Amino acid sequence: MENNYSYAEFMKAVGKNSSSLEAERLLSEIYxxxxxxxxxREQTKERIEKLIDSSLDNRDEDAFQFYAExxxxxxxxx
Length: 78
Fold this sequence. Notes:
- The chain is mostly helical.
- It is about 80% helix and about 0% strand.
- The chain has 3 helices and no strands.
- The relative contact order is 0.10.
């Protein structure tokens, strides 16, 4: 899921005289990749939040600290 699309690649695909099919395909790939990354991030965030809740219910301070730090890191990378 770690595709690195360059502006030059996209412009090369758009600049072709034959058709815009390749440009549309590349743009669709980019949108799909962004969508999947968003979904993965949201699911990971929900999972960590549930683990935080569970650690609070169990009064497990170490687990709480660990998962809280992971959540902070995840949110900083948004």
